[in-house]
Structures are given as structure tokens and as C-alpha cells.
Design goal:
Layout lengths: L2 H12 L16 H14 L4 H14 L3 H18 L4 H4 L1 H13 L3 H19 L9 H13 L5 H14 L4 H20 L8 H10 L4 H13 L3 H14 L4 H13 L3 H14 L4 H21 L5 H21 L4 H13 L3 H12 L6 H18 L3 H13 L5 H19 L5 H13 L3 H14 L4 H15 L1
Helix pairs in contact: 1-7, 2-3, 3-4, 3-6, 4-6, 6-7, 8-9, 8-10, 9-10, 10-11, 11-12, 12-13, 12-14, 13-14, 14-15, 14-16, 15-16, 16-17, 16-18, 17-18, 18-19, 18-20, 19-20, 20-21, 20-22, 21-22, 22-23, 23-24, 24-25
């Protein structure tokens, strides 16, 4: 193929609406884990197989397995013929787009052009428009599901996609389910970041109303009601979901989370083990098991004056085993790394704890709230296990320097304040301690206390520009 024709083909490919043009970046996901997850969902969500095969083909392309990608696209085509025999062209636009791109990367340009032409003809027939301008609700929804699978960084885009799909089909159960899931996840992350977003409860209730057989959404609704302190109502939905689909791992995982949060840890463990039999490589399940064994350990220490050492060791090892399994399966799972590092520290395996903390911080998809949580947890490790007040102060301060609110930042602030006050009361306070405490009081709008601290810092370190400047600003703010 001549360069010009190849360039014009690339230009046509860019107009297609499919996974290759939706800017889904491979560095944002653990591709092996994503492939495993989609494979599990193909087994358990039979009605979602077209979009799952399409996404799986894209994941295979990202892993440089284009032959494998073509096989999944063939399976998507077979599903389309079976489910939508009267709408084959309309339902194949994303699949054909993925075909065109995959053939292009395999240097099978003639085939790529054939698929581009099929999409262009179908778009003209369907709405007299070009492929890049066609607005079909099912394409918006498929885009939304793909964004959901690629993680938190894409959730806002997923929300926009489902909203666009719902504009044309407001009562579509599948679109409402997708919208409810993304709203639940956005709200969950926003709570950690101390932000408010529109409550997901209405979206979840609406999705359940439109499809009472969607037990996955019922389980999410149960967790949301538990968040809102409506535990009995939530448990009602959860029990109904389990009754309808007793062996469905995607209901069991959320049921376990519900009971763990209700402090019924043994019941949660029982459910998680059952789910793990069906999806043994689930990072989510391994993480939840790690959390349950960690909770059991702390319950034991809290309720028993001299807990049996063997039992303590067993719980530490079980928790480490499952957190490690979660990080092996999903190398982007920040919470599993933090849990694992913590349990290594509890087990006095300090080198492994240090190494795991560093791996957690190197994940490229961390949000500001994750980073603040990291500084808080790593600061605690330095303080309580490595006995380094200096390193603890340094890490808590780093968490505070990220000037957006979150639970992690609040924790850094409280831990730092407590530690500095303890040092000062013990007569160990230096200029940096007083200066940092002044900064904290200022953040808490305690201006007089802040002034007092900065004056003490300057007495110990005269002419320090940072302290002098902060003191002047505070004095001006009080007099103005």
C-alpha cells in the first residue's frame, strides 16, 4: 500500500467509534488482570458478551496479541447474529471498527479498508452521517462500559457516556445499570476525597426498579443503604439478591463487604471463600479476605489481654497471603499494597514492608487522595515500627502539602499535630516543629495559636524567611 493511501486509511480509521479511538491507555491498567476480569464476566454475565468480546479484543491488541484479538471479534460477531439478527449492521459498528484497526496494525490494509467501508455505508444508511458523527445510544453505552473497566481515571467520562445513552433511551435497564454503577463508584471515591457528588441512591433504586433481576445492582444498593445508616433496608435487598442468585460471585463479593462492615467478620469470610471457589484469581476477593483476617487480628488483640501467639501468627500470615495474592493479580491495586505493607510491619518483616510501600507509591494512576493516604500510612510505619519521629513528621508534612482535602490529609494533619505537641511538651521541640505546628494552626484557622508558634520558631531560628513571612501575613490578617 502506498504511503498516501496508508495515511488516508489512518485518517478514516480515526473517524471510527470504537475502543481504538476512545483513548483507553494501557499504562492505566494491569492488562493481565483486566483480561482475567473480562473472562470471568463473560462466564457470569451472558447478556453482556458482545461488549465484553469487543473490549477483550482491544486488550489483546494492547498485549500485542492481534491474532487473539481477531478471534474475540469473531465471537462478538456470532453473538450479534444470534441476539440481533434484524440489526446486524447497527450492532456491529464497534466490532467492525475494532476489526479495521486490528487489521491495520497487522498491516492487512485491504481488509482494514473493507471494514472501514462497511462502517461508512452502515452509518450513511442509518442516519445519513459520517462514522464519527453518528450518535447511537448503544455506542455511548458501550463506551461507558469500557471507561468503567479502565478504572477511576475514566469514571467521569463513563458518566458522560451513560448520560448521553440515556438521553435517547431513558428507560433502558442496561443503560440505567451502567449509570448507577458509575455514580456509586464516583460517590465512593468522592467521599474519601471529602467532596460531594450527586447521590447514587436514586440511580441505584431506579436501575433495580427497571430490572429487578439485576442482583449485582441490588447488592450495590444494599451497600449504599448501609453507608446511609439504613442497614436493615440494605440487608433486605442483599438477602433478596442472594436468594435469587446464591452462587453469583459478583453478589457474594458485595455481601461479604456488607457483613464485614457490620462486624460479622466470620460470616464475611465464609461468603468470600465461597466466591473464591468460582473466581479464584479475583484481586477484589483476595483484598477483602486480607482485610477480614486483619480485622480478626485486631479484634483478637482488643478483646484478649494475652492473645495466643500461634493464633496471632496465623492471622498475620493469612492476611499477608491474600493481600499478596491481590497485588500479584492486580499490580495497580493501591489499597492491597497498603494493606500488605501494614501487615508485613505488624509481622516485623520491615524490609518487605518498606519495599511494598515503595511499590504502592510507584503506581502511575494514584489520585491525590491515594498519595495523601500513602503519606499517612508510611508516616505511621516510620513512627510506630521504625521509631523515626523525623521521618514520620516528614511524611505527614508531605501529605499536608497536597492542598486538597481528603480523609488521608485529615489523618496526616491530626497525626502531625499530636506528634509535634508531644515533642514540644517533652522539651524536644525545635524551630521546624514550632514552624510546622504554626502552619497546622493556621490551616485550622487558629490564628493566635499560629502566631505564638511562629514567634517561638523565629526565636529559635531568627531571620528564617518562611517563618517571618508567615508571621507577617497572620498579623496583617488579624489587624485588617
Amino acid at each position: 500500500m502506498s504511503t498516501i493511501t496508508k495515511d488516508s486509511l489512518k485518517s478514516s480509521l480515526m473517524q471510527l467509534q470504537c475502543h481504538f479511538t476512545w483513548t483507553l491507555l494501557k499504562e492505566d491498567m494491569d492488562l493481565d488482570n483486566l483480561e482475567e476480569t473480562i473472562g470471568d464476566q463473560i462466564k457470569f454475565f451472558a447478556n453482556s458478551n458482545i461488549k465484553n468480546y469487543n473490549l477483550l479484543s482491544y486488550v489483546c491488541h494492547l498485549k500485542n496479541s492481534n491474532e487473539e484479538a481477531l478471534k474475540y471479534l469473531q465471537q462478538a460477531e456470532e453473538e450479534i447474529k444470534k441476539i440481533y439478527p434484524d440489526e446486524i449492521a447497527r450492532r456491529s459498528l464497534v466490532t467492525w471498527g475494532n476489526y479495521a484497526w486490528t487489521c491495520y496494525y497487522m498491516e492487512r490494509y485491504k481488509e482494514a479498508q473493507t471494514y472501514v467501508s462497511k462502517v461508512e455505508k452502515s452509518c450513511k444508511k442509518l442516519s445519513s452521517t459520517a462514522p464519527g458523527k453518528i450518535q447511537l445510544p448503544e455506542i455511548y453505552a458501550e463506551q461507558g462500559w469500557a471507561f468503567l473497566k479502565f478504572g477511576r481515571k475514566y469514571y467521569e467520562r463513563a458518566k458522560d457516556s451513560f448520560e448521553n445513552a440515556l438521553k435517547n433511551e431513558p428507560n433502558n435497564p442496561e443503560f440505567n445499570a451502567g449509570y448507577a454503577i458509575v455514580m456509586y463508584r464516583l460517590e465512593d471515591f468522592s467521599r474519601r476525597e471529602c467532596e460531594n457528588v450527586s447521590p447514587s441512591i436514586e440511580a441505584l433504586k431506579r436501575a433495580v426498579e427497571l430490572n429487578p433481576n439485576n442482583t449485582f445492582i441490588m447488592a450495590l444498593l444494599a451497600l449504599k443503604l448501609q453507608d446511609l445508616q439504613k442497614v436493615d433496608e440494605g440487608e433486605g435487598y442483599l438477602e433478596a439478591a442472594i436468594q435469587q442468585t446464591p452462587d453469583f460471585p459478583y453478589v457474594l463479593r458485595y455481601a461479604a463487604k456488607f457483613y464485614r462492615r457490620k462486624n460479622e467478620v466470620n460470616k464475611a469470610l465464609e461468603i468470600l471463600k465461597k466466591a473464591l471457589e468460582v473466581t479464584p484469581k479475583s484481586a477484589f476477593l483476595h483484598h477483602q479476605l486480607g482485610v477480614c483476617y486483619k480485622d480478626k487480628l485486631f479484634q483478637l488483640k482488643k478483646t484478649t489481654r494475652y492473645p495466643p501467639q500461634e493464633q496471632v501468627e496465623d492471622l498475620i500470615q493469612l492476611s499477608i497471603f491474600h493481600f499478596k495474592a491481590a497485588t500479584d493479580q492486580n499490580t495497580k491495586c493501591f489499597v492491597a499494597y497498603i494493606g500488605l505493607a501494614h501487615m508485613y510491619a505488624v509481622g516485623k518483616r520491615y524490609e518487605e514492608a518498606e519495599e511494598t510501600f515503595q511499590k504502592a507509591f510507584q503506581i502511575n494512576t494514584l489520585s491525590y487522595a491515594d498519595k495523601q493516604e500513602y503519606y499517612y500510612r508510611y508516616g505511621n510505619f516510620q513512627l510506630f515500627h521504625m521509631k523515626s519521629e523525623y521521618e514520620a513528621i516528614r511524611n505527614y508534612t508531605e501529605g499536608l502539602k497536597i492542598e486538597k482535602d481528603s480523609y488521608g490529609r485529615q489523618n496526616c494533619l491530626n497525626a502531625l499535630k499530636q506528634l509535634l505537641e508531644k515533642r514540644i511538651q517533652a522539651g524536644l521541640g525545635n524551630a521546624t516543629d514550632f514552624g510546622t505546628l504554626g502552619f497546622i494552626h493556621n490551616l485550622n484557622n487558629e490564628k493566635h495559636k499560629a502566631i505564638e508558634c511562629y514567634e517561638k520558631a523565629i526565636a529559635l531560628y531568627p531571620n528564617n524567611e518562611e517563618y517571618v513571612s508567615a508571621l507577617c501575613e497572620l498579623q496583617l490578617s488579624i489587624t485588617s
